[in-house]
Amino acid sequence: MAVAVVVAMLGTAVPVLAESDLQAVKRMIAKRLPGATVDHVAASPVKGVYEVGVDGGDVVYVSADGRYLFNGALIDLVNQENLTERVLAGRRVKSLDNVPEDSMIIYEPDGAAKYTITTFTDIDCPYCRKMHREMPLLNRMGIRVRYMLFPRAGPASPSYEKAVSVWCAEDQQSEMTKAKAGAVPENRDCENPIREHMVLARRLGLRGTPYTITDTGRAIGGYVPAPELLESLEADKLKLAQ
């Protein structure tokens, strides 16, 4: 796949195209990219360039004639905004909205939740453990943490077996906390969503753990201390209010 960065000085609104035009572009792109799943086509702010969602997570840009593909960030230099990231954030939120919460391990805050984050975690990841040690503080700050499981060593690994054992425990939260502290959970097996979590994590751009998606769809790779995380969530909220 060709790789480039699309940089645009934007001063005009995104053109509105008829649905029939967008469907025609979608068919053309699907023909030019055999094997790719095209799930989203929209006009971009750049004349003659279309925004295309492929394979459930990525966003690329394609010229109107279908000849040129741009893979990279579309930047509004006037407003200093990464428009591609804005689209990706929306797609992350939509993907997580389709995941039932009963397939997550959730740590509820003290009182009303101010923010919700979704974190893909590995029980044996040192930085995941460091984040988990701050769970009481996160909850006191009003942050609701939804865990999804991503054992980095893959299926059939000890980390995967621990994840299954934690998921199958009667008290998942307590068992997770003990496992994160180094205890080996009692071996258990049951129907679980861990493989689905792993597939989704890759689609959402995970490169390592912990991998957190905020309630605005912003992706945070790696460990962030609780006070800094809260500060960034509050900054997101102020930005949306502007």
Please summarize what this structure is.
By secondary structure, the chain is an alpha+beta fold.
Distance between the termini: 38 Å
Radius of gyration: 20 Å
- What is the CATH T-level topology of the largest domain? Glutaredoxin
Mean pLDDT: 87
How big a fraction of the residues is strand?
15-25%
Assembly category: single chain
Number of strands: 12
Provide the low-confidence segments as ranges. 1-17
Structural class category: alpha+beta
The number of distinct helices, counting runs of at least 4 residues, comes to 8
Write out the CATH superfamily name of the largest domain: Glutaredoxin
Shape: globular
Structural features, described:
With 242 residues, the protein is α+β, with helices and mostly antiparallel strands. It has helices spanning 19-32, 83-97, 126-133, 135-140, 158-167, 172-180, 194-203, 226-241, and strands at 7-8, 38-43, 49-54, 58-63, 69-70, 75-76, 81-82, 105-107, 115-121, 143-149, 211-213, 219-221. It has two domains: 7-85, Nuclear Transport Factor 2, Chain: A; 97-241, Glutaredoxin, CATH 3.40.30.10. Helices cover 36% and strands 20% of the residues. It has a five-stranded mixed β-sheet. Helix 5 runs antiparallel to helix 6 (172-180). The protein starts with 6 loop residues before the first strand and ends with a helix. 27% of the residues are buried. The model is unreliable at 1-17 (pLDDT under 50).
